[in-house]
Design a protein that fits this description.
- By secondary structure, the chain is α+β, with helices and mostly antiparallel strands.
- Helices cover 27% and strands 13% of the residues.
- Strands 2, 3, 4, 5, 6, 7, 8, 10 and 11 form a 9-stranded mixed β-sheet that branches. A two-stranded antiparallel ribbon has the order 1-9.
- β7 (253-256) and β8 (263-266) form a beta hairpin.
- The protein is globular.
- It starts with 8 loop residues before the first strand and ends in an 11-residue tail after the last strand.
- The relative contact order is 0.19.
């Protein structure tokens, strides 16, 4: 089996898969237990002494704050915008990184959370998957390009019976650019994984995450019900309704805090289809390994659905033309596959949120995820 699908497997399910976050409408919403523990440990053991040092440092001026009791909460949100957003974010992070001699303030070290959407998620994920290196080491560390050899990886996912789209190709290509393992010298060596085997949950294994020294990372994507959900007979343009649900990928969870869903599953089991929180009749095991890191950042930047007014690949705009051409050369996807969006077997099918607000994709077997920037340009709500 090739790199991209090396980790896809079936496994015994945990006792509880789908969990409610509580309702943001009545103030009962809370983080998952693992995320809450990470944030609490970081604030107490890492951020508390950092804030005391920063606020009492003479170089920052006299703040007048009582550093023994005041510990501000800071989060960084990186917008979408493809490579431009990723590079702009990299420049900003360099200015906010205390390890950089020209840093203006150690905001990277002082942040509780760091979220990225679309191109912004490329930088966030690249940083945390590589154990939070300084930006100069990250940006100057490798090189790569897109090649049709990626088709072979995605074909393996099709043969395994999973729905695929051009976003699978897109995610593989992004892995070559943003994760370690690919250089000019080895790009065409098909025996190397080129880090297409990385899972988003692997962030848990990095030294920086275990030490609590990185902001809790979040990659954001949007959802749509179908192509009809984003087309309007009154407009020549396609758009995803702003009321649709924003999904979060974190080292521990996959789901949403939006009142339209307010639920999550452990990210290790993303790609497992559930029916109102339970395995469908006749299904014995959960899917693991679906949360491929390249696929996650490809999902956050899954812009292909906006490149055409129709779902026909032969009308795709030039910016996805190459991917569309490569997609046509793949083995025939399973019938339920949707070609222009990221396909996730729906872990929230028929789920009724505790908020009593209807989840727009509850009737879908395939959860269709798109570029998060279709709904929110800067991931403030994540």
């Amino acid at each position: 089996m090739l790199a991209y699908t090396l980790s896809l497997a079936k496994a015994t399910c945990p006792a509880t898969l789908l969990q409610s976050t509580g309702s943001p409408l009545d103030g009962t919403q809370k983080l998952s237990d693992r995320e809450a523990a990470y944030v609490a440990n970081r604030r107490e053991n890492v951020l508390s002494p950092l804030w005391s040092s920063y606020l009492s440092d003479s170089k920052t001026g006299t703040t007048g704050y009582n550093t023994s009791s005041l510990k501000p909460r800071i989060s960084i949100a990186l917008s979408g915008g493809g490579y431009r957003a990723a590079l702009y974010g990299a420049g900003s992070f360099a200015a906010f990184d205390a390890r950089n001699a020209s840093s203006v303030a150690p905001l990277l070290q002082l942040s509780d959370f760091a979220s990225g959407i679309s191109g912004g998620s490329w930088l966030i994920t690249s940083l945390v998957m590589n154990d939070l290196p300084d930006l100069f080491s990250l940006v100057l560390g490798g090189d790569g390009q897109v090649d049709e050899r990626l088709n072979a990886d995605v074909n393996e996912k099709i043969l395994a019976g999973y729905p695929t789209s051009i976003i699978d190709l897109w995610g593989c290509a992004l892995s070559y650019h943003f994760f370690n393992g690919t250089t000019k010298a080895n790009f065409y060596n098909p025996k190397l994984p080129h880090d297409n085997t990385l899972l988003f949950s692997n962030i848990q294994n990095t030294l920086s995450f275990n030490a609590g020294t990185m902001p809790y990372p979040i990659a954001v994507a949007g959802s749509r019900v179908s192509i009809a959900d984003q087309t309007d007979a009154k407009s020549p343009y396609s758009y995803v309704p702003y009321t649709n649900t924003l999904f979060e990928f974190t080292p521990y969870t996959f789901g949403s805090f939006d009142p339209t869903l307010a639920a999550f599953i452990p990210i290790e089991y993303a790609g497992t289809r559930l029916d109102n929180g339970q395995l469908p009749s006749g299904v014995q095991n959960c899917t693991v390994g679906y949360e491929n890191a390249g696929f996650v950042i490809g999902t956050s930047a899954a812009i292909a659905n906006m490149a055409t007014d129709k779902s026909e690949l032969n009308t795709a705009a030039s910016d996805v033309e190459n991917l569309a051409s490569a997609y046509k050369k793949l083995k025939a996807p399973i019938e339920a596959a949707v070609p222009l969006v990221a396909n996730y077997p729906n872990s929230f099918q028929n789920y009724v949120p505790t908020t009593s607000v209807a989840f727009e994709s509850a009737g879908n077997q395939i959860l269709e995820l798109v570029d998060g920037g279709d709904i929110e340009s800067i991931p403030f709500s994540s």
